[in-house]
Design brief:
The protein is mostly helical and 97 residues long. It has one domain. The protein contains 3 helices and no strands. Helix 1 runs antiparallel to helix 2, helix 1 packs parallel to helix 3 and helix 2 packs antiparallel against helix 3. The longest helix is centred in the C-terminal third of the chain and has 31 residues. The radius of gyration is 16 Å and the shape is elongated.
Length: 97
């Protein structure tokens, strides 16, 4: 992580990619699993907003070591949540109806 601006761009890029994949699935499979895919989109937006809020308002601004740990923890949370959401979408798309 180089800086906050880069992290924000990465957050937006990853979440936009996930939402885009969800919308593509809904476009290709109309009527199938709409609620489940909608839940993935909703969860993704919620996590994105939560991480951006925590990124903008760190608790320890003066201590650079704690600040770096805080940002690293937020990045790890983002990667984990996006990975889980992609897995949920893959599971939905893999099901046969």
């Amino acid at each position: 992580m180089a800086n906050i601006r880069t992290l924000k761009k990465e957050i937006n890029q990853l979440t936009n990619e996930l939402v885009s994949d969800c919308l593509t699935y809904l476009d290709l499979h109309p009527g199938e699993n709409r609620n489940e895919v909608g839940k993935i989109i909703s969860d993704t937006v919620k996590i994105r907003n939560e991480i951006i809020e925590k990124l903008n308002q760190p608790k320890d601004k003066e201590n650079s070591k704690l600040l770096k740990k805080h940002y690293k923890k937020l990045a790890e949370k983002l990667y984990k949540e996006v990975h889980l959401s992609f897995e949920r979408l893959s599971e939905i798309s893999g099901r046969k109806k």
